[in-house]
Amino acid sequence: QYGGDIQNRVRFLNEITDAVVGVWGGDRVGVHLAPRGDSHDMGDSDARALFTQVARDMRARGVAFLCLRERVAEDSLLDAIRDAFGGPVIATRA
C-alpha cells in the first residue's frame, strides 16, 4: 500500500496532508520537502519524478506553500518542483 511505485510511495504523505488540510484548511498548511535528503541511504533513484509528483499532489490539495531543502546546482530540482506546484516555494540551500 505504501511502497513500490511513486503513487504508493506518496500515499502516506497525501493521506496526512488530507487530514491536516481537513482540519486547518489548505491556506494554513505548508509542506517541507528535502529532495537532497539522501543521508542514511534515503535518496530516490528518480528524485525528479518523485518530487514533481508530490508537488502536483500538494497543489491538488490546495497546500499554501512548499518549503524545499535544495541546492543550487546543474541538477537542481527547484524549477521542476516550482512548475509542478504552481504556488509559493521557499527554497533553502542543502
Automatic annotation (TrEMBL):
GO terms for cellular component: cytosol. Pfam families: Oxidored_FMN (PF00724). This is Xenobiotic reductase. Gene3D superfamilies: Aldolase class I. Residues 1-59 form the NADH:flavin oxidoreductase/NADH oxidase N-terminal domain. InterPro entries: Aldolase_TIM, OxRdtase_FMN_N, Oye-like. GO terms for molecular function: FMN binding; oxidoreductase activity. It comes from marine sediment metagenome.
